[in-house]
Design goal:
Helix content: 40-55%
Radius of gyration: 20 Å
Structural class: alpha+beta
CATH superfamily of the largest domain: Jelly Rolls
CATH topology of the largest domain: Jelly Rolls
Strand order of the largest sheet: 1-8-3-6-10
Shape: globular
Number of domains: 3
Strand content: 15-25%
Number of helices: 10
CATH class of the largest domain: Mainly Beta
Largest sheet: 5 strands, antiparallel
């Protein structure tokens, strides 16, 4: 069975130094990454354009100069508001900050972060210290000069200090963290089923069964955890797939509607306009890059 793409293993080139800095650029409005999660802590630093990002059950809009913190195992997706988007992405395995022997810093701070007991705020705006720290990490990583690993590691310690002091959303007990992870692991079964069968007619009863929940319990927990009802999540997932085809294929609107799980082109167009505030044809005209 293939690894589900909802789980994304963050690309880290050197596993002996598990931090990766990459520049991301997009030249269209719409979905830039679909719902997924990963085990790495991820930092986004917005350079240009506006992006709507959903993290778990919250939606935030970020602009140039803003910082986004995506906690480990946090479901997230992003949609560009503008036609030109650029941002830096920093993926890190916080465990690389641990030493060979446990000291006070590791026991008191690093271990709880690795265990996801600290949940950081997703959006950070107007914090020059955080931005300066991130730009130092980017500059040193891209330079590759002798000792850059030391500089990056030092700046990462500083960044985590700033996050711990000023940007903690909540602190979980080990039991709360375990319960949250168990619930998410169950709901992932439904998310993976949607991913694998979005082109088919989907039954909420079957999705609930995938999670081992009653229909009522499933819908309640899904909405609380994901931030959308199962039906709305399915519609948005299909629309994101349709966006890809509108940009990257010569399929007509009816073909795209049917190939992404919509019953007909009219219903597809209504849903697309509802969530994207544009018709499929208008969206294609603005963003079509098929050669």
């Amino acid at each position: 069975m293939r690894e589900p793409s909802l789980y994304e293993k963050a690309y880290i080139k050197d596993q002996h130094f598990p931090i990766q800095v990459s520049l991301k650029q997009f030249h269209y409005s719409g979905n830039i990454f679909n719902s997924h999660w990963h085990e790495a802590l991820e930092i986004l630093y917005i350079l240009s354009g506006s992006v709507d990002i959903e993290c778990s059950a919250e939606k935030i809009t970020v602009n140039p100069g803003d910082v986004v913190v995506i906690n480990a195992n946090e479901l997230h997706r992003g949609d560009s508001v503008d036609n030109e988007i650029s941002y830096y992405c920093i993926d890190m395995s916080v465990a690389f900050l641990k030493g060979s022997g446990a000291d006070l810093c590791e026991i008191k701070y690093i271990d709880p972060i690795v265990r996801n007991l600290y949940r950081f705020k997703n959006k950070i705006g107007n914090d020059k210290e955080v931005v300066n720290c991130i730009t130092d990490i980017i500059k040193e990583f891209e330079s590759g000069e002798p000792g850059y690993e030391l500089a990056v590691k030092g700046s990462t310690y500083h960044l985590l200090t700033l996050l711990l002091r000023n940007h903690v959303q909540n602190i979980l007990t080990p039991e709360e963290c375990d319960n949250r992870q168990k619930l998410f692991n169950k709901l992932k079964n439904a998310l993976i089923h949607i991913e694998n069968h979005y082109t088919d007619k989907l039954s909420l009863d079957i999705l609930a069964e995938q999670c081992g929940f009653s229909l009522y319990h499933f819908c309640h927990e899904f909405k609380n955890t994901i931030g959308k009802s199962p039906g709305e999540y399915i519609t948005l997932y299909r629309i994101a797939k349709a966006e890809e085809l509108l940009m990257n294929s010569d399929m007509n609107i009816t073909e795209i509607a049917l190939s992404t799980g919509f019953s007909d082109a009219n219903y597809f167009s209504r849903m697309f306009r509802k969530y994207k505030e544009d018709s499929p044809s208008a969206y294609r005209k603005k963003n079509h890059i098929y050669k």
